[in-house]
Request: fold
Amino acid sequence: MSDLDLLTVGEALVSLRSSGPLAVGGPLTMHLAGAESNVAIGLARLGHRAAWVGRVSDDELGEFVLRQLRAEGVDTAGVRRDPDRPSGLMFLERRTADVSRVRYHRAGSAGSALCVDDLRAPLAAGPRLLHLTGITPALSDSARDAATWAVRTAAESGIPVCLDVNYRSGLWSREQARSTLAPLAGYASVVVASADELDLVAEPDADENAAVADLLRGGVRTVLVKLGADGARAHTADGVRHVPAVPVTAVDTVGAGDAFTAGYLSGHLDGLDLVDRLRRAVALGAFAVAGHGDWEGLPRRDELSLITGSAAGTTLR
Amino acid sequence: MSDLDLLTVGEALVSLRSSGPLAVGGPLTMHLAGAESNVAIGLARLGHRAAWVGRVSDDELGEFVLRQLRAEGVDTAGVRRDPDRPSGLMFLERRTADVSRVRYHRAGSAGSALCVDDLRAPLAAGPRLLHLTGITPALSDSARDAATWAVRTAAESGIPVCLDVNYRSGLWSREQARSTLAPLAGYASVVVASADELDLVAEPDADENAAVADLLRGGVRTVLVKLGADGARAHTADGVRHVPAVPVTAVDTVGAGDAFTAGYLSGHLDGLDLVDRLRRAVALGAFAVAGHGDWEGLPRRDELSLITGSAAGTTLR
Amino acid sequence: MSDLDLLTVGEALVSLRSSGPLAVGGPLTMHLAGAESNVAIGLARLGHRAAWVGRVSDDELGEFVLRQLRAEGVDTAGVRRDPDRPSGLMFLERRTADVSRVRYHRAGSAGSALCVDDLRAPLAAGPRLLHLTGITPALSDSARDAATWAVRTAAESGIPVCLDVNYRSGLWSREQARSTLAPLAGYASVVVASADELDLVAEPDADENAAVADLLRGGVRTVLVKLGADGARAHTADGVRHVPAVPVTAVDTVGAGDAFTAGYLSGHLDGLDLVDRLRRAVALGAFAVAGHGDWEGLPRRDELSLITGSAAGTTLR
Amino acid sequence: MSDLDLLTVGEALVSLRSSGPLAVGGPLTMHLAGAESNVAIGLARLGHRAAWVGRVSDDELGEFVLRQLRAEGVDTAGVRRDPDRPSGLMFLERRTADVSRVRYHRAGSAGSALCVDDLRAPLAAGPRLLHLTGITPALSDSARDAATWAVRTAAESGIPVCLDVNYRSGLWSREQARSTLAPLAGYASVVVASADELDLVAEPDADENAAVADLLRGGVRTVLVKLGADGARAHTADGVRHVPAVPVTAVDTVGAGDAFTAGYLSGHLDGLDLVDRLRRAVALGAFAVAGHGDWEGLPRRDELSLITGSAAGTTLR
Amino acid sequence: MSDLDLLTVGEALVSLRSSGPLAVGGPLTMHLAGAESNVAIGLARLGHRAAWVGRVSDDELGEFVLRQLRAEGVDTAGVRRDPDRPSGLMFLERRTADVSRVRYHRAGSAGSALCVDDLRAPLAAGPRLLHLTGITPALSDSARDAATWAVRTAAESGIPVCLDVNYRSGLWSREQARSTLAPLAGYASVVVASADELDLVAEPDADENAAVADLLRGGVRTVLVKLGADGARAHTADGVRHVPAVPVTAVDTVGAGDAFTAGYLSGHLDGLDLVDRLRRAVALGAFAVAGHGDWEGLPRRDELSLITGSAAGTTLR
Amino acid sequence: MSDLDLLTVGEALVSLRSSGPLAVGGPLTMHLAGAESNVAIGLARLGHRAAWVGRVSDDELGEFVLRQLRAEGVDTAGVRRDPDRPSGLMFLERRTADVSRVRYHRAGSAGSALCVDDLRAPLAAGPRLLHLTGITPALSDSARDAATWAVRTAAESGIPVCLDVNYRSGLWSREQARSTLAPLAGYASVVVASADELDLVAEPDADENAAVADLLRGGVRTVLVKLGADGARAHTADGVRHVPAVPVTAVDTVGAGDAFTAGYLSGHLDGLDLVDRLRRAVALGAFAVAGHGDWEGLPRRDELSLITGSAAGTTLR
Reply:
């Protein structure tokens, strides 16, 4: 795991997707899911060396998770197999053409048993970046301790930390989230959030400008605000920049935020300036929503030009 | 079948759906279809006690129909198995992205052999509402007699009748339809029609206002005019009310009219006022068109809020 | 339709196949079915010029039937489109691994409206052989007249007739079948039957030898008795010959009898002697049962050696 | 729930089936699973009035379970929706043509929260028979208490109890199972077990005869020993009877034991003598293994003759 | 092949379609593909007598190609089976909702071995029209010679030639294409091109008007410019006519250009005037894009009205 | 690629599988195929460090190959992407239940362009074993040179070489194969062959004993003869040992020989004695034939006991 560009930490789930109302039954498809593993895949597809660390079950579902990560070229050397706990699952139901619903089966999962010891070796190897989301500290006490330890340790070692707020109302309340995430944000170099998540890493009910000011004051270098179809904004000490979204036919919005983050971090690793990082971020977001699956549609480096240009349609060569 | 909220009468078909041109072949999926059973399912999903009565074949296809109705919680105690006649079938062909075609195989079917005796016991049990469509009297002489008897008997017993015109040009001419349906409408409390069906329960070539005036004069309390993407209008003695459609991504318009009627009748049973009944009606229509299948996408009561609110997209909990 | 090797006459159905219990629902696949069209396809695959004549509906299902026949190279120039009647259907349900069930929806079908006029031109073109089955005369009065006329006319014109008894208990009683089929057999050159069908073209309750003696006395040249896994017997004036079945893994027995007949007639057209005709007949039967579908597994001429030789397994070239 | 023939109590799961190695991924199909609900379905298909009682989650998966039970005509009036716990799941992996593997995700499930109060009303309604398995008391303390209470209460009320040992090594040890199940067996009228489960309701390491003697002495009237492909034995005070299995092509052995029990109990309800009950039991077992799914292949009453007769193959009518 | 309305010459490929990113794997569907065979199918569906000539492999893939062509009623009597060369393949990957990618495996294919001798007999039979595309001369030297010979011979025999430029950058450069295609255009009566292909049959960098002037001067009677969603323009000596596209929901743009050409040629064969030919052309283009597959959605003559009228939606008869 | 247990060299193909006759069409599934990559996967699944080296296309199909190998944990660091050549393909057609057919599209493929330079680094890294098959030298001159160089270099470096004869009649004649393979066998430590392949690495028409004597005399230590359902024989200087096959339900024999070799080499790496190596070899062969796909059914180490024990059937835990 030496020479890593990115280390991500979290829980990887087996996502079971329906193409219609779940109550009626019908076939499900199996997918790897997980906000952090999505980011790792996004970077690996672009040729960066990315690792994912976490716990997976010691059965076929854990094996499935590992096969998918390895297939994508994500380093899994630091993954722990938990012999006592099952894989976390999620059902992703296509309820209508416009409405999808998620139901988690992750209480007591292998992934939620993440602890500090799981992270010592991977972090000691010295990755160039560390990425976490606000989901991990919500999984369990030990996972919260692990996330906190990792963020603090990285910051102390000079490894820039990226934190995506990623609030999940099914896991904890906004108050619980704020009390855990706001301190974490203090160690982060980059904070990613949607507009309605910003006050979870700042004062309650703070508006965007106030929350950003808080964060920048606390040491964050860049605050990225995801705006969906409206693109994204980046706040830094130098001010704010906005880029619009890339217009595509959206078929599946799950994973778009993770793709956005992966694009931004890829631009960072490539030494791009802020606006070009944002452009890559929204480009990856566009790939994510224009294809089915959380990450299956993400581009390799040679594919980046496919949808940033204006000409869509079939390419006949 | 005591304490029923709604009794529906009609023919339930086995619908065989293709996802492309039928002449090219390919897999078909089996579905329960039928305007009246769609309405019964719509109400049962919302928690009302709904029954469907009709004849089904005494073979695997009849069993399929019953399994689907039972699965949806529709009371099937009054259904008759016909040992001598096959199930009615329909092929629903997705010819292009915009054009679907229906071809019926229902001549001589079990469902078309419906007769007065099939309806005596269910109606005697005293449902709160009776619903029929203009399809049933077009199926056979005995079915027409049964529909006429049911509507008249219900009206005489003080059971409000809802009649959906539902003109099918493959079954009879407009003239034949008018001569049968106009008298039926005289017994109805609620008449449902699309704009071009109104003159089938009024004078030939009557425009909407003239037709409505006729119907109200004849004793109808409410005339509902389905306007598709333009929503719906309700005419009563107090005047006319309009509600717009709920904007959704439409993927399958089949069953939208039945969903509309189910929503209206549910509002009636819940004691809503006219505009709120219409709102529920168009909401159910929106669910119907936003999902595949005639009725598979209809909401349970706890799902009603899913698409009437403004926020679409994936719900992550 | 000149220079035809074989003319077949009958009803072609759209077969809807389930892979499990039909009452539970699930996807269905569309197939062309029909005893006579199966024989035509069997011969066309082997390079003979074969035609099928009958009536098909003037809609997408009729188009489907024609597409399949044309794809297989069967001459369809004599087929009539019936604008007023639907396609005959059959549901083929895989009830258990060992038990399949068939349910017909063919009453009043286009195919059952076959009449003498439909056959005049095709027969006048002078095919080398005419093939019919005992299903056709059971479909309707006009179909029975057409079958009778065709057999008699062919016999009078010196065109050898092959008659497969193919008794369907759902269409008529054994007594009805015997009264129609026994006279037809008098015009046949080749009669094909399973052991329990022989007395339908002879005296009631006649055993195999008695029935065969009757038939040979009446002018039949060859009586073929299909024995399933035990192969087949051929009776002629010269005595009886038996060939065993070709051992294969059987996955679908539907269509095996038609494949057998096609193999025999192909051997006849190729001038093979009796035992080699039987060998080709049982070889085609083996292809039919070793593949899914009524006729999809039948061999082209260059494939005949695939399962008559002893070496099974994957061929790596 | 009045006039019930059979009341079953247990946990119903959502079974997710793969058709190949799970680690490789691929589509999964959703099925209702559960030893007790399988028995209820088996009896309902044969026309008996059967109910299933248990807890299901208050979400789409719980709705799926209810839809399946209702579709099969199983009375679900006594089912409780648990708003706080998820559905129990199982993955059924087809690892090789001969080996399937099951992995449960049922810890903390709604079904495992079953308690005595859930059963009071259903049992007070006075079913003719009560059926439980040894799985339920292994799920949780409250479920064990509920099972014990139900068996004792039924026995005291004169309702015959059927207990299927159904040992699951993933849920408890043999010692734990024995200490719970042996007392339960004391209340049972019928005990069902495979040969290696008998000592779980008798002395440790008891052989079949010793265990049976123990059970009969303790008040059990009939001990049924399932022998798989060797059929089954029934021990009573009058001695032992054996019936062979019905030979079929086995494609899926899951659910065979439950089908066996359903057949036996159906024979009991129909007043058959012991050997005929066993014959129906092995017939239902044969249906179960000859079809895919736990219960999908079970017969309706009119289908019982399909595989007890000797002639297999396609039925052409 | 007598009395042919249209002869087309080219390579028919087996197209393997994915519904998502190809690198991830998943099922592929097999389709017949080929610009010229698409045109032949388009005309055959409308009732014209159309033939396709080319070489196909002498194996199962060649057989697949022939089955599809025969199914569509395209005359295949002139097709040659090449025993030494494989079928040409193409992978059609649905990369995102908006971007499809094509990868050819056609080097050294049977189709690319087309030569003059393959075309002598078909052309000598005297079709009413000859259609070629700019793909064929790019396949090989012998194919180029064959295309050139055919176009010249047809022109000399008074058979009008239609040439669709159809530039494929994967097969040759624009310069190579121009040097071959510009002379071919000199023999054509109708030239079809997209706006950016026009200069491949005229002077380099010529704009539309200049290129058209060149072509008309060289003897071309009609130049058709395909404008996609903007419809099409036709240039003749009498000036230029434009027709807008027919608005439909586009799901698959592959094959739209071939459908356009088929519609135009059908109008020519039916004696329509220029604008009505263009209307049929854009109507067929609309059918092509509104359905999946290169040609599967093309209309029969009785279906032409389905999408030219204004009323879309389900047709209930 | 340091500390490798096994290095394999060859061509990896994309296999397109049908479930029925290919000429009829239908869906295909994509699989990784290749005798050498199968062996690498077999060892990687058992926990050995295995690498595969070869050339793959620089497009989506090459990416697919790499994703599959990485998913299985096979080291792909030495793989070369060839920008100029397409992926080799094979169609694997399930013609009947017993007969599968393979058709290669591999002429001019990236894999066939393998050359000595591709192998220098991987071999220099010093794997514990080198495995090749007789397919690679048949692909091209450069591939033959590369295979010869690798075998000779390994032998000279003290790396034991395993050579599987794997004769493919579609690639070369027996005489061509013998002239190339017999010298290669001289460098091998282990030679694997089916009985009818032995004389390709010995004298023409040599029987098994003569061929083995030749090979042992030439320096081979172990000659393994694959006997399919009869198990396998191992010849060494100490004599001959035989082990029977493990009885399983065979559903797909493709890949069985490669699985056998993987099992043998795994036993070798684990230090098992000859008979235990053979036992593992036939066990892996059994896994391969009991599952669909070339390698998908191969066991992980913890799964080895699943089918070597006697008890088959569903494992309920």
In short: The longest strand of chain C covers residues 27-33.
